[in-house]
Specification:
The chain is of the alpha/beta class. The chain has a single domain, classed as TIM Barrel (Alpha-Beta Barrel). Helices cover 38% and strands 12% of the residues. It contains 14 helices and 13 strands. The structure holds flavin mononucleotide. Flavin mononucleotide (FMN) binds next to helix 13.
Length: 415
């Protein structure tokens, strides 16, 4: 065992460009928890869940996305940051997550058009182009967005900066700006969702302006020791969308801006590559990471599909990745990192049975994963639901109930 430990590249610390040291190479990637309290703030369930993950052995924990603007919500049980908010819940969240030595980044996000119509009927986006998922059952799931006005864009950039300042004040080690998976920043980057003709659309420089301004704004506002991460798509995997060449150029734009960690992912709701890639290999974004490595010195966190110790070790030893991001396994085996990194197990499994209809399978799977956050948030052990379909229905009912509460929260002035 000792020799495995001595040689294990997964257990090497990583020093980020700003000097912060992460104790090992495993990160719990962001997973939307959907268990905020009644005021859309972190509460008991989040604290319980993170006290579990604090013991996971991961050097880095990245929270599920929290919202930078009360008017945009990716899922109806999420934490919402707002001006003048009570910071006690955020402070407790950061403290619990760090209690066993992990670093914690708060992932900050705005959904843009990718929000369910039962949550927001008319979302905002770079351009009025609706999410289109094939199948009649998805026709009314998303609303047609309204294009943002120039001054609203500036205001949203400032909201990302304010969110980072709140995270810093609350004691998080840093933030991760969610620029992937088809949310607002990714919508600006993609020529499919951004057909603007002003300074925010057209050329890649213009489409990347929102992200670049957010990154510059945060770096200028926070202390040098506060980590700034960016999660970026390697590609959207859609014809005419944000392609690998674009992603490489965006990374080059980020290079001089003081980014401490770049997480590589891919896909969006229309083309959900983040949930399975091409299926050809376990760690499906590593090929892209290799190309990114050639043009950037920013430490790379590669997320998507990693399950086997040897694959993770090889990715770190070969320097294709500096950190390995893992999401789904943390829902079912919250303490697997110790066993895997120390060589006691070779592989972590996620054990979710498959349903025959791919669309239903995908949403039922997400509901089954989210159930584990609620269970751990209530101090229970992870456990698959008896019926994936029944669990999905319950999750939908809960979502609608939360959406009603959200609408009331907005009407009451979002406080
Ligand atoms: C239930 C669930 C919620 C997720 N929420 C987020 C999120 O809030 N932010 C994010 O960047 N990625 C989110 N993801 C994507 C994961 O971070 C990760 O990129 C993806 O699951 C692939 O990693 P894995 O194969 O290890 O699960 C989520 C994934 C799952 C399963």
């Amino acid at each position: 065992m000792v020799s495995v430990l001595e040689k294990n590249p997964l257990l090497e610390p990583l020093t980020l460009p700003n000097g912060v040291v992460i104790s090992n190479r495993i990160a719990k990637a962001a997973m939307e928890e959907g268990i905020s309290d009644r005021k859309f703030l972190p509460g008991e369930k989040i604290f319980q869940l993170y006290s579990r993950w604090a013991k996971s052995g991961a050097g880095l924990l990245i929270t599920g996305n929290v919202m930078v603007d009360p008017n945009g919500l990716t899922g109806p049980g999420n934490v919402i940051l707002r001006k003048g908010m009570d910071l006690s819940g955020l402070k407790k969240w950061a403290k619990i997550a760090k209690s066993e030595g992990s670093k914690i980044l708060l992932q900050i996000n705005h959904p843009g058009r990718q929000t369910f119509s039962f949550v927001t009927e008319t979302p905002v986006a770079p351009s009025p182009i609706k999410v289109k998922i094939p199948g009649r059952m998805f026709e009314k799931v998303f609303g047609v967005p309204r294009a943002l006005r120039g001054e609203e864009i500036r205001d949203l950039i400032q909201k990302f900066v304010n969110a980072a300042l709140l995270a810093e004040e609350a004691g998080f080690d840093g933030v991760e700006v969610h620029s992937a998976h088809g949310y607002l920043i990714n919508q600006f980057l993609s020529p499919i969702t951004n057909i603007r003709e002003d300074e925010w659309g057209g050329s890649l420089e213009n489409r990347a302006r929102f992200l670049v301004e957010v990154v510059k704004g945060i770096r200028a506002a926070v202390k040098p020791g506060f980590c700034l991460g960016v999660k970026l798509n390697s590609a959207d995997f859609q014809g005419g969308g944000f392609q690998e060449e674009d992603s490489i150029r965006v990374i080059q734009m980020l290079e001089p801006l003081g980014v401490d960690l770049l997480e590589i992912s891919g896909g969006n709701y229309e083309s959900p590559a983040m949930q399975g890639g091409s299926g050809k290999r376990e760690a499906y974004f590593l090929e892209f990471a290799k190309k990114a490595r050639e043009i950037t010195k920013i430490p790379l966190l590669v997320t998507g599909g990693f399950r086997t110790r040897s694959v993770m070790q090889e990715a770190i030893s070969s320097e294709e990745a500096d950190m390995i991001g893992i999401a789904t396994p943390f829902a079912f085996h919250p303490e697997f990192v110790h066993a895997l990194a120390e060589g006691k197990i070779e592989k972590v499994s996620t054990d979710i049975p498959k349903l025959s209809n791919p669309a239903i399978n995908s949403i039922a799977r997400m509901s089954a994963i989210r159930l584990q956050f609620r269970r751990m948030g209530e101090g229970k052990e992870p456990k698959l639901p008896r019926s994936l379909i029944f669990n999905l229905i319950l999750d939908q009912i809960r979502g609608r109930r939360n959406a009603k509460r959200y609408k009331k929260f907005l009407m009451d002035g979002a406080n």
